Amino acid sequence: MRRILPVALILTTTLAAGACGAPGSSSRTTTQQQAPASYRATAPLPAAPGQVTMGSAGFPESELLAHLYADAMKARGVSVQIHANIGERAAYISALKEGSIGAVPEYTGAILNYLAPGQKATSPQNIYTQLRRTAEAQGLAVTDYAPAQDADTITVAKATADKYRLSTIGDLRHVAGRLDLGAPQPLLTVPYGVPGLKKVYGVAFKQFVALAPTGTITQTALRNGTVDAADIFSTDPAISRYGFVSLKDPHHLFAAQNVVPLFKRDVLTQPMADACNAVSAKLTTAVLGELDAQIAKGADPESLAHQWLAANGLA
């Protein structure tokens, strides 16, 4: 399961569905923000490299991220093992807390909501600030978040964006009454869905078309005009493949979902933090989307991670 969205909206996706999300060019992302200053724990971290087992959720993007962070840590002398494709969040967070894994790549908004349901933060920095406090209180720790997000976006075809001069969700206000929105059924009623579009941006679509939460179905509906706008995750390879335009969300209707490494607190060392921070600093939504697209075409996540790290001086 890629992410559990606020208010417990659960969408099971495949990578190609990326229909999602994660985090670039202005047409590929919601909010882009530089990662915060280097991680500073409440107590000094051990200077020795240490050892860690890096887990991942059961979908390709998570496996890719696990290899990116794991290989970067290896390059700094950390002894790293990989336990990929553990499954859904409940399974790998349980493994993290009991110690069978020591780290896992996560998404800031989703993991904050999982660890502390009901949190109201939506912007990248506010979510991260609350996440750090929450994680520390539960024996966990996060390093820096990446600018890359795998977040919900309201996305349109380029022809639609050009016709109505759309660049932000708010630009839809005067034309949405002529357009249909396609999204998974829960988006019709959750606060950050159709009600939120109306409350935050004054946007009310002519019709809501319930779509199964898979990228192929959503892409096809948007391409053939069955819907005029759709809920698509920001790293979905279809965005660049078909020239879709993801509208900016300046008021953070959708909670930020920045990529972030999550550690068991007593496992984390300074070399681990430094390695992860170096990866996060270079990982944008556009980069992650491009890597996802290569995986969708058959690239091996482990090999792809090593190639990207080498190309960026991190291997």
TrEMBL record:
Keywords on record: Signal
Annotated CDD domains: PBP2_ProX_like (cd13606)
PROSITE patterns per UniProt: PROKAR_LIPOPROTEIN
InterPro entries: ABC_Gly_betaine_transp_sub-bd
UniProt name for this protein: ABC-type glycine betaine transport system substrate-binding domain-containing protein
Pfam families hit by this protein: OpuAC
Region annotated Disordered, chain positions: 19-39
Organism: Streptomyces incarnatus
Location of the ABC-type glycine betaine transport system substrate-binding domain: 51-310
Signal peptide (UniProt feature, chain positions): 1-19
